[in-house]
Amino acid sequence: MKPLFEWGDITFGIISGVLLIAATGRFINIPNADAFLPISLVLFIISAILNLVFNFKDMHKEKKAFLASLHGIIDVLLSIILLAVAFGLEIPFSAVFQDPNIKFGIGIFFIVANVLWLFVE
Asked: What does pTM read for this prediction?
């Protein structure tokens, strides 16, 4: 089951990154990217949390589990904040995450970091 959650986490991370970049209107033109982004973020959060559970169980066995857990926590926090912004919830620093440049940067982070995990897994 663990590889399924790892691949799901990576896949939804890359999809969320692409949709986030498309939502900024730069480089990629995906119709209704804003509508698909919350769905992708929810799936990304679920798969990342399940992957975190397995990483915490393997923390004493594998050296990469700590780094994978740290990456998973960052992914979950960024996704929750972006999901809250997408639904118009007022949270601290929400204005920062509405900036298209910040969204673009987070999208690049999601893509690059998850593609790197393809080679580590």
From this structure: 0.86
